[in-house]
Amino acid sequence: MASIYATSSSSSSRTSGLQGFGGLASGLDRDSLIEAMTTGTRSKIAKQKQKIQSLKWKQEAYQSISSKLIEFSSNYLSMSSKNSLISSSFFAKSNVTATGANSKYIKVSGSSNMADSIAINGVKQLAQKATYTTGTVNSTNLSTGSIDLSTMQDVDALAGTTLQIKFGSGNAEKTYNVTLDKGMDYSTSAKMVESLNASLKNVEGPHSKTLGEYMEFKLTDGVLTLSEKNGNKVSIVGGSAAYYLGYGDKVDGSGLEDGTVSLTASRAPSSTKQVQLEDYLVGKTVDFTYNGTKVSAEIKADSNTGKVTLDSIKNSLQEAFDKKVGSGRVSVDLSGSTLSFKATLPDGKEDKTSVGKEDKTSVLKVSGGTAPLDALGLSVGDSNHLNLKTSIGSFLGKGSGDTSDYSLTINNTTITVKGNETIEDLISKINSSDANVKVSYLETANRFQITSTQEGASGKISIDPASSDLAKALFGDQKVNVTGQDAIINVSYDGVETEIRRNSNTFDLEGLAVTVSGTFGYDASEALDKTQEAVTFTAKADTEKVLSSIKDMVEAYNSIIEMVNKEVGTKPDRSYAPLTDEQKEEMSTSEIENWEKKAKEGLLFNDPDITSLASSMRSVFLETVKTGLSYTELEKIGITTSTNASDNGKIVLDESKLEAALESDPDLVKKLFAGDDTTNGLMTNIKNVFDKYAKKEGASKGILVDKAGSSAAPLSLLTNTIYKQLQSMDDVLDSLKDRLSTEQDRYISQFSSLETMISQMNSQSSWLSQQFSA
Quick check: 163 and 200 in contact, CB under 8 A? Predict the structure, then answer.
């Protein structure tokens, strides 16, 4: 394939794009001649493109090496990395264990060089936020309003009805039933027209088209008109929707069968109709939740009258509760025209928190349904416990329309609400106030819980119900004065005792985060009981984590050594140069890939910068020893360099030795890797080398970043040396292209003149021949 390079001089900027036509008079192949005459310039263009491509590949080769160095630095040489082997804290004794009979009360994390000298002799008390839980809030009776089944209910008149339309002529005439979907919107005239036309499109008409493709409803001057788009015969002949759309005068849609009714309605349409409540409630549901369980009760008609009665409602609801949550758990009672609901104990036995058969811990709540809840005097959220949506006025017995101001004071902070605001609004105001408390409603217990937002003894709760009817109604009639408490522990530092107090149960003890969860070590008089065993701590490095990181680091470092030495030691095959566009056109994709892979080899052969990098990496251990570390110590922890010259200074790791060193002498491992106040560690020396070649921060970048740029330092992509070289080479290429264009234009002009002269000569020759033949 080496012969391809030999053809490159004539393979760039061909003349196939030359304008005009040549050789019409002379018979010459103008384009081929011009191509041959511009061979020199085109050859220079081809070679310039190859030089540019080679330099781009060389830039990529530099970047591939620098990216590996940067990646290594980010993983192992950055203080912010979780695997930072250059940081002494990475080797800290972070596996800390509490020991002793009372260690079950101690949880510890973090690291400290003093862990072995710290002991917790006792925990006098735990930190507690100030917290107060009220008594049971006065339960509300869950009941309906007075139900009048004779009242009229406005209901949707169109949803689920049908409209009969006769369409077609002769044998093709047919009556179509158009169903008005229950899920559509008929609430306004515009929505009604939209839904009617959508319903027409749901019915298949003649010739596999929908009725909506033949006809449509329009609203003009408040009345409906059905128009046929193509002049075919159409008529409205019945259906339960006809009357409410303004067609005919009978509710059932009869009397239209002859098809003579006008397609323009006689009156405005109506989307609602009135139905007596006792008829409308049949089949409707009232939904409840009982301790989170949904109960959907279907209202059934009286078996004798076929209409809903108060007794049939009561029986329907009771049956649903018994079936869904069990008999005896909810009692539905009818008194006059009002239904009431009560959670009860199934066996009727009393317990200490119940009154009679009432179950005060079960929550019964209205959640929805298809029945008109307002007609039953119910609302979503109504409950046998407190409904937070209840207005303050209603809660205090003043009525929902009450707009009076009500206030309560907590921790000397007064919160004011209007009577038409809800209990939920009040809770929100309290929680966002300067009272520094959080109020929560415990629905199951039907109580309020008040908790200070300040930790420990700083927190307090102070409420005087005598100053506010609202406070008394919500939080009870007992005066509240609660304070929190701090945690107190006794700690020894090398035998020296000290009592420490904090507002939380977590203590920072010289880098250890110690959380206490129980008391010990003190007697009934709150004196330290020294007969009880203290809790002590043992600390060691996280051997598994450190070993894994060092192993990964060695693999990454050795792979870089292998990559660098391969690049600098691979000789280029001079018979492979970058392909020109024309050469690529003659090759398959796989052939191009194989060629370019071979052409990229050896671009950094004997490159001085990469050679220097390889040398620096090979001598890292020597530099480490020079800075004060002992090769013997490195060998002791399992770190050596390969004695095989072909490995070019690869690190050899003895995992068993390293693991043993981490267990027996973790400080030595830390010193050899991270260094100390007097010596550089191995990782610092590696960092010095990698920064020299691939530093990406600061004004002064690494050698390879300065030379070829790096995506890790975006600005360098526009300021590196190769980028500037490529810009200059592109300028030369543009100049050559301009020269080629000038040459081509000149030759085209010359050939055009030649063609003109030959054409004139041919014309003269033809005229002379005619003269002599005459």
Answer: no
Coil, helix or strand at residue 689: helix
The CATH 3.30.70 portion of the chain extends over: 132-136+389-483
CATH of domain 132-136+389-483: 3.30.70
**pLDDT higher than 90, residue 138:** no
Closest C-alpha among 295, 320, 275, 278 to residue 147: 278
pLDDT at 351: 52
User: What is the distance between the alpha carbons of residues 736 and 745, in angstroms, rounded to a whole number?
Assistant: 14
Residue pLDDT, tens place only, 390-430: 999 999 989 888 999 999 999 999 999 999 999 999 999 99
Give the C-alpha separation, 477 to 134, whole Å: 10
Two structure tokens written together for 28? 């010459």
The DSSP symbol for 350 reads -
Tokens 């030649």 locate to 754
The predicted pLDDT at position 533 comes to 95
Q: Which of 91, 119, 88, 89 is nearest to 106 (CA)?
A: 119
Q: How far apart are CA 212 and CA 200, in angstroms?
A: 5
β-pairing verdict for 460-463 and 447-452:
unpaired
Amino acid 609: pLDDT:
96
pTM above 0.90? no
Interacting residues of 569 by C-beta distance below 8 A, sequence separation 6+ = 605
Query: Which of 76-91 are b and which e, b meaning 16 or more Cβ less than 10 Å from the residue's Cβ?
Result: bbeeebebbbbbbebb
Q: What burial letters (b/e) apply to 31-63, b meaning 16+ CB within 10 Å?
A: beebbeebeebbbbbbbbbbbbbbbebbbebbb
**Beta strands in 475-528, from DSSP E residues, in sequence order:** 480-483, 487-493, 496-502, 506-509, 512-516
In the prediction, which pLDDT does 11 show? 44
Residue 234's nearest CA partner among 243, 247, 221 is: 247
| Residue listed under structure tokens 């700690």 | 491
User: Do the Cβ atoms of 518 and 105 come closer than 8 Å?
Assistant: yes
Which tens digit of pLDDT belongs to each residue from 686-733? 999 999 999 999 889 999 999 999 999 999 999 999 999 999 999 999
Q: Match 């005792």 to its residue by tokens.
A: 497
Mean pLDDT across 94-117: 91
> Over the stretch 499-554, which tens digit does the pLDDT of each residue have?
999 999 999 999 999 999 999 999 999 999 999 999 999 988 888 999 999 999 99
Judging by DSSP bridges, how do beta strands 131-133 and 639-641 pair with one another?
unpaired
